[in-house]
Amino acid sequence: MFSDSFIYKGSFSPEQIPNQLNEGFGLVWDGYDIDGCKGSTGEYLRYNNPHKLSLYLISGLPVIIWSHAAEADFVIKNKIGLAVDNIYDIKNVYESLTEENYKEMVINVKKCAEKVSCGYYLNHAIEELNSKLE
Description:
The protein is mainly alpha-helical. The protein contains seven helices and three strands.
């Protein structure tokens, strides 16, 4: 059964979390509905870069993200996860995923994680902003 694929591992201190996230996917999802990210926190995903995304990347996990989230294009472009419209879509996407696809995502996640941990994306954004201001 699909629901058997989800395992709740409890709560941990912020320092312990990356060590506990060591298999599967991280879910970048907010709001009160499984049919889409609704409500103020769900809508906020359309505009922000949630901390959860960085956490999962640093932990080495590919992500499943709402397809309308601001970072969905980044996830797809960098091949670090999957984008879905609603929670129900996860089953079909997950079942069509091959081991090769997953391994490729994990390799790409490691590359992104290195960039996140050294501040590459922040520095790149600052450089872009500075060049536009000049």
